[in-house]
Amino acid sequence: MSAADLIQPQAADAEAPRQRGLLSLLLIANSTMLAVYMGVGSVLLPTQIESVDPVHKVTILGIVGGVSAIFATAFNPIAGALSDRSGKRNPWILGGAFLSCAGLIFLGTVRTALLLGIGWCLVQATMNSYQAAVTALVPDRVPLARRGTASALVGLALPVGGTLGVLIASRTSGSPSTGYLVLGVMLSAAAASLSFFFRDVPRERIVPKVSRQAKVAAFLSALSHHDFRWAFIGRALLVLGYFSVVGYQLYILDDHITLPKGMHPTDAMAILTPVSMLAMAVSTIVGGLLSDRWNRRKVFVGVSAALAGLVTVIPVISPTWPGMLAFSILNGLAFGCFMAVDTALVTLVLPKAEDAARDMGVLNIANAGPQIVAPFVASAVVTVAGGYGPLFLTGGALALLGALAILPIRSVR
User: Fold this and answer.
1) Which of 57, 64, 217, 316 is least enclosed by beta carbons within 10 angstroms?
2) In terms of one coarse class, where is the protein primarily found (predicted)?
């Protein structure tokens, strides 16, 4: 059942304040989720791996990142489908957050590459169960006419959460256990607040009596729809290009960029991330609101993906601190607009409203799946090509292909 079915015309005004409250809590829930992803993935985990084996840090980070992303890819759509079948979101939100908190605390206690890998796999699995349920709340409860605005507000989670996560991680990199604990508690508090103030909207339980083969086919059936498939491909290519570079940013700052005297890579991260995320916040708001006002999605998504690809040449031409600042600002503008408007676009090409969480979970394979490939691609490019310049160019080429993949979408302007 879609949000449009749940809200009768005469009740629209009465529901408006409640929707605004929902969007605020969704912003907090998504922000803490991305604080975990960015804080751990960009700072705490690479720092721990470097302390364990500084010589093989690139390879180890690639393996840990790739294997853990397999868990993310598997658990997101599975949890989404199970959430659809149960007719409830809150148990998955709470369970995923609390189990993730336990996994983060475990990560703060380990000191070997193997245990770091196991711990991060567990966190990825539980975080993606949480993410699948939270993501489904937009198509569940927000009317079609407000999807762009809602997606823009929720999209602010990346700049807000990313900045917060990296700042916390950078300040606690000398004591990772503290950073993990703070991030885990924040996530749990956000999940508890969302579940307490917004109880589950009654939804029809879907328990189909079909064969296992039919279940698998139904699970991926959204990809048989032309527009959904191209939206999936475009998202996957851009995310692959983005995380191929961002996942190694700490090492890029350490080994490729000439930093000002006395500045350490973690200090640089604490500056670059807020700068990039501020740019991302601006483009998220502007892109989402303008896409609603003009009722246009494809042009915003395509242009922002193309910009994300083009700006990767800056750190190649100028591997300096000013060059990295310029790249971070422009890349933030491009990625923020893309994610805000692309999320709105995707909600408009979902095949069936009653399968929203399942299909959004399938789409999230385009978020998590490329993160399986990205660490291996990045590690191979850096090792074989002998530097981070080719890595930037590879990420840029993938983003440009993502821009081209938006063109075949027909049902959305």
Assistant:
1) 217
2) membrane
